[in-house]
């Protein structure tokens, strides 16, 4: 079975659930039971995803980035080769859009990719308390050149979806470049 490798940088403000999302996805897919400590250094995780209706697998090399301003230079060097972005925002934070724009700029500057392929992920703890409804989230994602998805790392809801979207994008890119 052919394997496509794709580096994915996960960025976003502190305490938005980046590490919880990764742990839920790379673990057994259940909701997170414990509070995680802030990420101080970039951490690597991997998981293979089978692409439906193909014999391909995509191995996601997931880079959990710290968001503290003192750690950003190290994070920038670590994600420099990333081709895909997963930008996580807090679904209950009315200032999340400002932070998202800053982290998108950080990714662009770190990778020199002007129009990154990726997913804007709205992580929420309590359904119904999101600042942006689905339509607003999709419009905001589109304005940033990203597709959007809503998940709850705390409740284990839809955590696979953004990673599957990235895996599919990596497969599509591979097939496109393979045909040239």
TrEMBL record:
One of its GO terms (molecular function) is GTPase activity. Transmembrane segments: none annotated. Keywords: GTP-binding, Nucleotide-binding. The keyword Thylakoid does not apply. The keyword Transport does not apply. PANTHER family: RAS-RELATED PROTEIN RAB. This is Rab GTPase-like family protein.
